[in-house]
Amino acid sequence: MSELDEFRATVRDWCAAHVPKDWRPNQTGVGDDEFAAFQKSWFAELHGAGYAVPHWPAEWGGGMSVAQQIVLYQELAAHDAPRLVLAFVGIHHAASTLLAAGSDEQRRRHLPAILDGEIWVQGFSEPEAGSDLAALRTTARAEGDNFIVNGQKLWASGALHADWCLLLARTDPDAPKRHGISYFLMDMTTPGIDVRPIRNAVGDSHFCEIFLNDVAVPAANLIGPVNKGWQVAQATLGAERGMTMLELSERLGNAGFKWLLDAAPTDDPVVADRLAQFEIELTGLRGLCRDLVERTEAGEAGPADASIVKLYYSELLQRMTGFGAAIGGLNAHTVLTKPASSGWESGAWMLDFIGSWEWTIPGGASEIQRTIIGERGLGLPREPSAV
Q1: Using an 8 Å Cβ cutoff, are 305 and 295 in contact?
Q2: Are residues 314 and 359 in contact, defined by beta-carbon separation less than 8 angstroms?
Q3: What is the pTM for the complete model shown?
Q4: Which three-class secondary structure state does DSSP give residue 342?
C-alpha cells in the first residue's frame, strides 16, 4: 500500500468515527446560536485531527501535500461531513492575506487565534461596488495613529458572529479607483460598527450589512502599504479558488449527485439521460479543479484558470439544483428548511436552487468571469474603460 493509500485509509477511518451521523436533521431549522456552537465544535474536532487547515504552511499547523489535501476533501465529501461555513473566511481569506502580505506580528497574533476559533468576515462589497469592487466608497482618513473609517459594507456573510473583518477602504479619493484603496484588519468590537442581518430569499440571515461610523482602526492594522490594498486583495480573492473549489466540487459530486439520484425517476429515459450528462460534467469539473490546484502549486496556473473553474462550478450547480427542483414535484417546493451547516447541495431542491444564485453573482458574476476568460485567457481585446 502506498503512503497516499495509507493516508486515505486513515482519513476514512477518522471520518467513520467522527463525522456526526445525525448532523443534518439536528442542524435543520436551528437558530444562529446553535448553528455557531455546532460550527465551532466541528472546527475544533477537525483541528484536533490536523484536518482543519491542511493548506496552511507546516509551521502554522498545515503542511499537507496537494495530493493529501485532495484525498482529505474527497473523503470528507464522501462521508457527508458538515461544511466549515463559519470558519471559511478565516481559514481561507484571512489566512491567505496574512501569509501573503501580513507582518510577522500580525501573523503571530491572528493565525493561532483562527485555530482557536476566531471568526472573520470579509468587508469588501458595497451597495454600488459588487462585481466592480474598485468602485467602493468607504473612506479611511489618517488621524494620528489611527485611520478613521466611514461607510457601508454589504453581503458580509457571517458578520453577526465575526470577531475581525478584512476591510477595504479608500484612503486617496483623488487617485484612480484601483490605486487609492488600502487594506485593513478591523476588530469588530470597535465602537461605531453596526451589523444588521439581511433576510434572504431562502429565509437565512447569514448575509449582513456593516455600517461604519467614525470607526478608529489602528495604523498597525494596515496590511501592506497605504493605497496598495487592491493588490493585496487579489491574494484574498484568489483564496476562493483552487482547493476551496475542489472541496465544493467533491461535495457536489457526492452528496449533491446522491440526492439527485434519490429524487429522480431513473426509469424515465429523459431523466436518465440528464443524470448521465450531469455525471459527465461532474467528472469534468473534478478534473478542472484538480488541474487548477496542481498547476497553482507549481506556479503554472494561467490568469483565467480560476475564472474558468468558478464559472463552470457555479453554472453546473445551478443546472443541477434547478433540475432537482423540476423533478422533485410539489414536495420540492414545500420544503422550507435545510441543514444550516450544509452547502448548496442539501437535497432541499428549491432552497438549493435559489441559493445557487449566490454563486453566479458574488465573487465576480458570470459575466465578469467570461470577460476575464476572454481577455486574460484568450487574449481578446479589452473592453473600453471609462477610467
Answers
A1: yes
A2: yes
A3: 0.91
A4: coil
